[in-house]
Amino acid sequence: MKKQTALNLTLGLILFLLAACSPKPETPDPNELVRQSVAATLAAIPTTTAIPPSTPFPSPTPFDLAGLFCEYHFCIGHPIDMAFFDVSAQQNPAAPSSYGQGMIAALNANLFIQVIWQAAPGAADPEFMLDLILGEVDIREGNLDVKLARGMNVMYTAITSTATTLLPFGGAGAWTCGDRVFAWKVYSPQAESAGLLFEEMLARFTCGL
To answer: What pTM does this model have?
Structure first.
């Protein structure tokens, strides 16, 4: 009996030491989670659906942002034939987008739009969100346009992308609003339309202020 008890104590001690030496789970980096979600969203862009040849694209092409998406205590304009979906919820149903952090996207054969945001009280420079949404597949083109619009610090840049050959051009912007920082990106079939789309979107944007 004493031998059995000693054996049990020895085994228990070994298990305890193994557990103590096991690597502790690291707290996930929120920025890395966003990057992974961005990559997953880009992977969902259709690469085999041809752009309808009957749709003309004169230069420049204004898009009608008659649609208005209002969730998570902000509203943002979008083309009426596109609907935003919650990328965060699609990747992890247990952690959908919320007021403090999220990602939505919308796409059709002619456009891909993505919006991300996160709480950043006191942040005045939104460029870190611009870098985050661009990732590794987008390249800035030209100068970064920085301005103050309706009390929001705003920056915008034209981009080219290797995410999809059907929509090689685009633009990306970031801005502050209240205690949050937002970033927006679009892929389009022509370079000129992205800037117009950003300006129209920003004119209709509100965040509960």
So the answer is: 0.72
